Amino acid sequence: MSVEYKDYYKILGVGKGASQEDISKAFKRLARKHHPDLNPGDAGAEARFKEANEAYEVLKDPEKRKLYDQLGPNWQHGQNFQPPPGFENVRFGGQGAGFDAAGFSDFFETIFGGFGAGGGFRQGGFQDFGGQHARRPRRGADAEAVLELTLEEAYRGGPKNVTIQEQAPGPGGMPTMHTKTLEVRIPAGVKDGARIRLAGQGNPGQAGGPAGDLYMRVRILPHRLFRVDGDDVVTDLYLAPWEAALGTTVTVPTLERSVEMTVPPGVSSGQKLRLRGKGLGGGACGDQLVRIMIRTPKDLDETQRTLWQELARASRFDPRAD
Q: Per DSSP, what are the bridge partners of residue 273?
């Protein structure tokens, strides 16, 4: 059988020194462009998708990539491309698990699907160099996804349905993407960057092993009224100069509902007033900080200007004094 060398770097459109991040980005770009679900009936697109997936399967894994780089385009020369020194101890897939070469090209299967009668890797699992087939059940790898929440959702907590995409075996062993909807229980007061664990919703196990876990990393979306500062939330309250000088009672929004707040006389711009227990943090809630912002009127009529001038003459207040 004649097996043609495949340049996986060229297939993904990256250089040989490309980082893992560059390789991942290149594959995702090609997968979005050529995925069969987005190109129904296009055999060429399906072939390019399979080719990109095969390339990514090798280059995303440091050990597979190392072997591929060492064999190179002259892999057919010599005694059936002997594996590099020390490679007999390599186990692809983690913890000694093998991998299935079904659905990939003859080149891929020849290198990664079996080294021939002398042992090595074979389609359907790992064969040790004594000739015995050993494929034990393995737990699937954990996965991670981003869970975007409004600030109100993070504050209240509760159930939320989330739709995610996951890769699963398709016809002929080729991986394919499909969507699934999960219910996530959000803890009240959850913070940005927190991780929520969904047991058994990660990558599938091997040889009948259990699936890994899925971790949803919380990202709190920007809010038009509030900013998050640790457990606290901060909002701005705009006052007229006379309200700041004389004190007032104003309605202030919170994450739960609007409340009446008393502003003491003589507050300054930038000063923060505290509404206790109105922040994030679940059982030990943070506070809501209300930052005072004083606005001065711009368009004064003659009467207003005269009154401000009289106030300036009567006042002994010096804003620049220590």
A: 290
Distance, CA of 110 to CA of 305 (rounded, Å): 89
Residue limits of CATH 2.60.260.20 in the chain: 143-220, 227-299
Can you spell out the DSSP letters for 28-82? HHHHHHH-GGGSTT-HHHHHHHHHHHHHHHHHTSHHHHHHHHHH-TTTTSTTT-P
- Closest CA relative to residue 120, chosen from 92, 93, 79, 78: 92
Third-level CATH fold of 8-127: Helix Hairpins (1.10.287)
DSSP secondary structure, 151-202, as one string: HHHHHH-EEEEEEEEEEEE-GGG-EEEEEEEEEEEEPTTPPTT-EEEETT-S
Q: What is the DSSP string of 97-118?
A: -----TTS-HHHHHHHS---TT
* Prediction pTM value: 0.53
Domain 227-299 carries which CATH code? 2.60.260.20
Tokens standing for residue 225: 């009224």
Identify which has the larger pLDDT, 148 or 70.
148
Query: Which of 37, 58, 34 is closest to 47 using CA atoms?
Result: 34
Cα gap 41→120, rounded to integer Å? 38
Q: Select the CATH number that applies to the domain covering 143-220 from these four: 3.40.1620.10, 1.10.287.110, 1.10.10.10, 2.60.260.20.
A: 2.60.260.20
Measuring CA to CA, which residue among 304, 288, 166 is closest to residue 226? Answer: 288
Digit-coded pLDDT (tens) for 88-141: 444 434 333 334 444 567 666 666 654 333 333 333 333 343 444 456 888 888
Query: What are 176-221's pLDDT values in tens digits?
Result: 777 889 999 999 999 999 999 999 998 888 888 898 999 999 999 9
